Amino acid sequence: MAVERVSLTDFATRYSTFTELSSVALGGRIVNVSDEFFAEAFHLLLVEPAPSMKGQFGPNGALYSGWETRRHNSTYDWCIIQLGTSGSIHGFDVDTANFNGNEAPAVSIHALYDADLKDPEHDDARWAEILPQSNLGPDSRHLFRITATPCVNYVKIHMYPDGGIARFKVYGDVSPVHPSSDTPFDLAHVFAGGRILRVSDQHFGIGSNLILPGRGNNMGDGWETKRSRTKGHNDWVILQLGAPGHLEQVEIDTHHFLGNFPESCEIYAIESPADFDWNLATPDDSLWTLILPRTKLGAHRQHYFELENVENRTYTHVRVTIYPDGGIKRVRLIGYKAESTMVEPQPPTSVETSLFSSEPTETITIPVIPLTSADYRPFGQVIQAYDSASKPEDLKVTPANAGTADKFHKLALLSSSYPSEAAATTGISVYQCKPIEDINGGVIVLRTLERHPYTSQAFIPMGSGNADGYLVVVAQNGGDDKPDMTTLKAFLASTSQGISYNAGIWHQPMTVLGKSLDLACVETQIGDGSVADCEILKLVSNSQYILKLL
Questions:
Q1: What is the mean pLDDT of the chain?
Q2: What is the pLDDT of residues 388-430, one digit of tens each?
Q3: How far apart are CA 532 and CA 536, in angstroms?
Q4: Which of 531, 537, 479 lies closest to 507, judged by CA?
Q5: Helix (H, G, I), strand (E, B) or coil at 116
Q6: Fold for domain 185-337?
Q7: For residues 457 and 412, what is the distance between their CA atoms, to the nearest angstrom?
Q8: Which CATH architecture has domain 362-548?
Q9: What is the C-alpha separation between 234 and 232, in angstroms, rounded?
């Protein structure tokens, strides 16, 4: 699992394009909690920063705006949260504001997806750890970035062993919902996958509020800039549409803004390539098409305008400019979804051994998820040490080395089924792996799978020089004695994790990321280079499979 702690000073640049998936404005809610004796868990999802309640007491003790459990839990406390919308998680903000001496010392975070939105139980077997146990400190915000998850809609936070957390925010990308291409809808809406990419100023209200559902509750849930003192000043926000589209109308809502609405606004649009870096971009008028000339606005009302220069044109991004400053509650960009013009990865060119007979006609994206023993169990075993909270229940652990170590017994068993005449032997080899270079925008095309029909095969990293880990891509064997691509999974393993492939499991050859890495390999082999030891299959199929590192 790749985990990065982010400095609070980098929050704007590292989190600005993500959506707060847990927000109550999107429908985020507390599902269940192990304990909330001192302070109720609903505080975790409140929008406003946690205020100090120093000196205030209730029947159970001091009052806090946050979630606080009773003392001396021997394991951990937990809280289950339903996200406001399904999406891929990229990071967290765990805030222990005002908890000092009673803060949660550490947390881990788990996630799952339930298509029926049936609230999961605490011990649901589908929970997968996405943030390993990580230390916290008192009265401070803790920002974590992780390898992006697949689509999830529930998270569970573990607090070790007890204590308090003021606010908890989950950031990521929305799994968009679009109607058919002949149905008009708000292409900028957060549930459609719309995002705010850049904002000139958001002193009083953040830009991402512009694409939230509904009309909001007060001025605090809109976009509002500071007062300008410069003649000719304007402020602007750049929105990415949830899909390339044909625009027709715009709604500008100044609900609740009475004495601080903008005097006027204008709107530009652009069709931009997928790899354009908006963090480096400037709102250069020469690159944009004017779709709404400068138009006066009023206080506390919904404004509807027909757009210009939109006929037979496709746009991907919109820039709303306000004069000279002020606040807007919502922006709705109504139109129709167009076919994407984004550049897709090119199909593989190898034609050595075909899994299917025709050229690729579709691209299937396989998200790379963190490696856990539960998710990997159908394909083999994960080889690693565990803390007491994350240890699998059926794993035997005993003290060793006169009490200076713990022994995790038989994490992976060796197996082989070679014919007796094959004279196969078991040994340890070392693979000195160079990092993969064929990565384009975090995408790796799956070109080859291999299997070892008669032996399990274990790989154990030697050293921790490769901070980016390695990929483990696996599939079950199908009824035609070829990979069953419906079972294809991709995992990201850290350098503290080894893996063992069960005999006959199809897998991608070792794929190391970032830096070179040595891996010890334990296997049984004949050693003559025959298919009995290793069968290799080049993939050329009706469907192109790509691995997405997010």
A1: 87
A2: 656 777 788 889 998 899 898 988 888 898 888 788 899 999 9
A3: 11
A4: 537
A5: coil
A6: Jelly Rolls (2.60.120)
A7: 10
A8: Sandwich (2.60)
A9: 7
Task: Express each pLDDT in 98-128 by its tens digit.
Answer: 999 999 999 999 999 998 888 999 999 999 9
Residue corresponding to tokens 């094959």: 422
> What pTM does this model have?
0.59
Burial-class residue 113 by CB neighbours within 10 Å (0-12, 13-18, 19+): middle
**What CATH class is the domain 3-174?**
mainly beta
DSSP string, 179-206: --TTS-EETT-GGGT-EEEEES--SSB-
Q: Beta-carbon neighbour count of residue 381 at 10 Å?
A: 19
Strand-pairing partners, residue 173, are 88
Question: In terms of Cα–Cα distance, which of 536, 535, 525 is closest to 416?
Answer: 525
Buried b (16+ CB within 10 A) or exposed e, 141-176: bbbbbbbbbbbbbbbbbbbbbbbbbbbbbbbbbbbb
The reply to whether 185-337 shares the fold of 3-174 is yes
12-20 mean pLDDT = 84
143, two tokens:
């920002």
Both structure tokens of 41: 């868990």
Type of residue numbered 285: D
Q: What angle do CA 5, 7, 13 make, to 5 degrees?
A: 105
Partners of 320 in beta bridges? 237, 267
Q: Which residues are within 8 A (CB) of 315 and not within 5 positions of it... i.e. 6 or more apart?
A: 241, 244, 245, 246, 247, 269, 270, 271, 289, 291
The rounded percent of the chain whose pLDDT value lies above 90 is 57
